[in-house]
Amino acid sequence: MLTSPRQCRCCGATFAQLLSLSCDRPDICSEDMEVEDNSAVLATRGDILTEDFCRLGDLRFVRAVLAIPLSGSRGEEFLLGTWASLSRDDFDAYLDLFEMRESERLGDRPAWLANAIPPDMPMPAGCVLEMRPEGQYPELKVTEQNHPLYPLQKDGAALEELLELLYAYGHDLPSLVFDA
């Protein structure tokens, strides 16, 4: 499953490596809000959704990744493309460094996971947003020990746990394992 191409039965997508999920917007953001180019965040006042930034009233969000190590693998990770809510000051500082691809100068920042993961999770998770070098998306580390993602991120996820998470999002990936 990690090395050969396979096709998902539920959506028809072909995957050449382990599937990663990506949220296209923070959960609080309306589905009918149009995604604009990143440059619009500097040129537009008010609410806006771009490829990497979201501004809704006083709330600020940036695109991030949440990595879940796979137990028993050789360092393989399952990546969740998520959104992080952060303070206005941290958002502005990140935005200033984003274009120069120097966001790592910002250091770690407190943040909240802005997507319900798993999908039935009612409350957002407190996190640390770790800035990474050379324009890479920052990485979210869940800090709330009672959140279901905390042990998965800390100890790694068994393949069965990962498949359950993917199934909760509508992907019937167990069939990929057994149809190989």
Automatic annotation (TrEMBL):
PROSITE patterns according to UniProt: PROKAR_LIPOPROTEIN (PS51257)
Pfam families in the record, alphabetically? DUF2199
InterPro entries associated with the record = DUF2199
| Protein known as | DUF2199 domain-containing protein
